[in-house]
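Bumping my old thread because nobody answered last time. Still need a sequence for this structure:
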């Protein structure tokens, strides 16, 4: 599938994937000069689904891409978004949320290839993992790999990537690998960060001290963790659906 925007075009596209089965796809996003594309991708598969996808975006001069990736359901889901620039001035934001339960393997592999000067990119993904450990149980597992390459000709690049993971139960495993390769010193700025951990005790203490029960406090912390990204999604119906989905996930283990 290919989505192509002409010069000065504007579009918002929602790709909503549900059901069961084994599915592989290749999606291309081609942005003309000064165009703007918002893409919202939702993987809400049934528990036995297998999904492998490659998304390729090519940004023209002064074009803007906002790519929102949401992974909730499925047995094995692997999404590989790639961004490249064909001319100066491109601006790409790659945002994502994922929530893995016991038995799920959710994987995100990103590449931002800065090969044109004076372009920007911002990558921010957040994930939560939960699932009871027991005999015959496969724990939740997520993999996030973010590769950013700044080529020698990409002077004036500005880029940052961040991945954060919240582990809600014992046994769940989050692998996070941010990579940054810089071939020129003439850039505006570049950085990356990764963090994986349990609940913030200070946040929980603050809420408990104000009369909020531990269960409600944990729910508030998780909702706040995700909302930094969810609030940026430009489709209200999708935001409401994700809020409800997170509440459903948290009810599984009484987080």
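Sorry it took so long. Here it is:
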């Amino acid at each position: 599938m290919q989505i192509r925007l002409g010069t000065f075009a504007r579009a918002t596209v929602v790709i909503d994937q549900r059901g069961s089965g084994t599915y592989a796809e290749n999606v291309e996003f081609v942005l003309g000069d000064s165009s703007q594309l918002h893409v919202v991708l939702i993987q809400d598969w049934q528990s036995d689904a297998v999904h492998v996808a490659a998304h390729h975006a090519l940004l023209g001069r002064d074009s803007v891409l906002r790519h929102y990736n949401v992974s909730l359901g499925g047995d094995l889901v692997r999404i590989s978004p790639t961004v490249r620039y064909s001319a100066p001035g491109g601006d790409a934001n790659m945002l994502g949320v994922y929530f893995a339960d016991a038995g799920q393997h959710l994987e995100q592999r990103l590449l931002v290839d800065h090969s044109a000067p004076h372009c920007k990119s911002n990558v921010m993904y957040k994930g939560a993992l939960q699932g009871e450990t027991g005999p015959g149980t496969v724990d939740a597992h997520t993999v996030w790999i973010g590769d950013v390459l700044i080529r020698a000709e990409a002077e004036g690049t500005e880029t940052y990537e961040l991945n954060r993971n919240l582990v809600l139960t014992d046994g769940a495993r989050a692998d996070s690998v941010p990579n940054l390769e810089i071939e020129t010193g003439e850039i505006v700025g570049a950085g990356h960060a990764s963090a994986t951990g349990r609940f913030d005790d200070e946040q929980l203490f603050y809420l408990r001290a104000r009369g909020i029960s531990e269960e409600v406090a944990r729910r508030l912390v998780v909702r706040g963790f995700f909302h930094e990204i969810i609030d940026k999604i430009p489709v209200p119906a999708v935001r409401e659906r994700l809020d409800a989905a997170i509440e459903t996930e948290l009810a599984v283990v009484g987080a």
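The chain has a mean pLDDT of 90. Let me know if any region looks off to you.
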